[in-house]
Specification:
The complex is a heterodimer.
Chain A: E1 17-28, E2 31-43, E3 48-52, H1 59-67, E4 75-84, E5 87-88, H2 94-100, E6 105-108, H3 112-115, H4 122-134, H5 138-151, H6 157-160, H7 170-182, E7 188-192, H8 200-217, E8 220-224, H9 228-234, E9 237-242, E10 245-251, H10 252-257, H11 262-269, H12 309-313, E11 319-322, E12 325-327, H13 332-336
Parallel strand pairs in A: 3-8, 3-9, 6-7, 7-8
Antiparallel strand pairs in A: 1-2, 1-4, 4-5, 9-10, 10-12, 11-12
Helix pairs in contact in A: 4-5, 4-7, 5-7, 7-8
Chain B: H1 2-28, H2 46-55, H3 62-74, H4 87-123, H5 127-141, H6 144-158, H7 176-202, H8 205-212, H9 217-255, H10 260-269, H11 273-301
Helix pairs in contact in B: 1-11, 4-7, 4-9, 4-10, 4-11, 5-7, 6-7, 6-9, 7-9, 8-9, 9-10, 9-11, 10-11
The chains are: A alpha/beta, B mainly alpha.
Bound molecules: adenosine-5'-triphosphate, iron/sulfur cluster and magnesium ion.
Membrane topology (chain A): Peripheral membrane protein
Protein name (chain A): Oligopeptide transport system ATP-binding protein
Domain ABC transporter (chain A): 17-268
Amino acid sequence: MSAVDNRGGGSPESRLLEVEDLHVEFRSKDGTANVLNGVSYHVDAGETLAVLGESGSGKSVTAQTVMGILDTPPGFVTGGSIRYRGEEMLTAGEERRRELRGENMAMIFQDALSALNPVFTVGFQIAEQFRFRRGMSRKDAMAKAAEMLDMVKIPNAKQRVKEFPHQFSGGMRQRVMIAMSLALDPDLLIADEPTTALDVTVQAQIMDLLDELRRERGMGLILITHDLGVVAEVADRISVMYAGRVVEKADAHSLYKQPGHPYTEGLMESIPRLDMKGHELASIQGLPPTLTNIPPGCPFHPRCHRAEDACREKVPEFHDLGLGRASACHFAEELISRD
Amino acid sequence: MGRYILRRLLQLIPVFIGTTFIIYALVWALPGNPFAGKCGARSCPQAYIDKMTEQYNLNEPVIVQYFLYLGKLLTGNFGETYSGTEVGTLIQNAYPVTVKLALVALIIEGVIGIAAGVLTALRGKGFLDNLVLASTLVLISVPVFVTGFILQIVLGVQLEWIQPSVGSDPTIGELFVPGFVLGSLSMAYIARLSRTAMMENKRADYIRTATAKGLAPRRVVGIHMLRNSLIPVITFIGTDFGALMGGAIVTEGVFNIHGIGGLIFEAIMQQEGTTVTGVVTLLVIVYLLMNLLVDILYAALDPRIRYD
Ligand SMILES: Nc1ncnc2c1ncn2[C@@H]1O[C@H](COP(=O)(O)OP(=O)(O)OP(=O)(O)O)[C@@H](O)[C@H]1O
Ligand code: SF4
Ligand SMILES: [Mg+2]
């Protein structure tokens, strides 16, 4: 599949990040949850990959595994590969991975209030990276922290570095989080639902800021969200996840025009649309599978309106649909050739 | 903040009057003749009794006695014992020893308690965790005077490592074992408190952020996790200082330390009401002020807390 999957011109070796067939399970007394069952995606420098999927589909766990901050135990990587600029991460030592964190890859989280340490000023939390990673003096580091706040367009940055996270509004706090993640100038940024906790008007501002920073710095951006609406404008490519797998991947344009997987279709129908105001919001019936007991065949079949006998027995292959598109549905070709 | 402190200080007044009145009433309403045994084997001469009754307003109702007492107290006069010694002087002699003992106890319980709690939280299940769990259970369930006597007999009498009985002006070294005994209960509590706090913070989102920033584990744990986990522990230690001063009675009795505890113990035995009320009043003031101090400290440690 990778032969056709060369948007952005990168060969597999020059890829910024390549995740391949990643398996992660969470072990507990009650059994083993198969949280990731072969996730593959990649992102190149300067492009935005959106990762979509319902709650529990494994978007965050994939990101944490890439960053090397998975809670182990209970989480264990049981297979696959994560390559950053061709370097295998899963076999790299913890010291090497720590070196890369912040400096090469960084992450921002959904809830900036809980993701920032409540007892330290935001300046302290940004400056500590300059102090302990770059060996700067306390004073210089603080000045750099103020510069970072300025860069994410927080007014009055010089004063605000001395404030604590709870003194910022939700949107400003997420800007602090972005400033902090970009402090060491990483070339890969993973944003895990950066706008979910925010007001709709603020959401757009934060998305614009992220997009602008990505462009200026030529970063690769992985944008995790379950909101297809947010994605439409900023994403170059989209990977849709279900039950710990990528079930469809495509460039944003073709995906919106014609989804190649019934699950993606369901997600699209649940976007609130202005012209549909007053109509009942369609959503996918049923619930995602329990990860300790994923149904045989296509994991989506109990909820799929197209399911046939074959779906209950045979796990669908990834069907290559050309131009970097692929879908894990037995009827992928049919789906995209509809009009 | 200034207004908050003022308000709290004003609130202290009714609390202070209420508690001291209860103490006063209890002490002076104690059954028994306060002059029994004061004059050797014979009963006291009537002249002496009259003089004392006059001096302590013993003929007045308790409430009047109390306010007369309170009036003197506010001028810094703690009154006199029956034998004519200034209670203020007695307190001045005994207080520093008890403060010293309480501080030693506080340091021991803080250092050992926090170390045990933090280490077990970081190591997770295993030998150390079980050891600390078992020993805190023992410390919590065995009464302080039993711990005191055992250590006194084993370390003092049998092994002769320490003086079983401490002199009148003890050094810090001499107070080490008594301090350990006095602080043992709180030590067990601190160990558990810091362990729980560390376990809670371990999975906190901001710890994940700190790791994602590429900080060294040493810094993630030692700065980010510890700083947050110690907030409840430090406030507990602050409150405990007031409590330890009062709790020193038993420990001082066991190790024969001439502190506030010894003073109060003797005073109760001899029905010296003035001394008892004076000392207990002082303990109440210290306790109330420490609580205020702890609340201020809490706001200093956790910037999210705002009074006013
Ligand atoms: N620390 C953990 N311990 C146990 N299970 C976990 C842990 N973290 C995640 N999981 C499980 O892994 C599965 C995937 O979780 P993940 O957070 O990746 O979902 P997600 O796609 O990010 O969902 P959301 O949109 O809600 O953020 C869930 O079923 C979750 O319960
Ligand atoms: S394989 Fe079958 S069940 Fe699965 S998505 Fe396609 S049609 Fe639905
Ligand atoms: Mg998530």
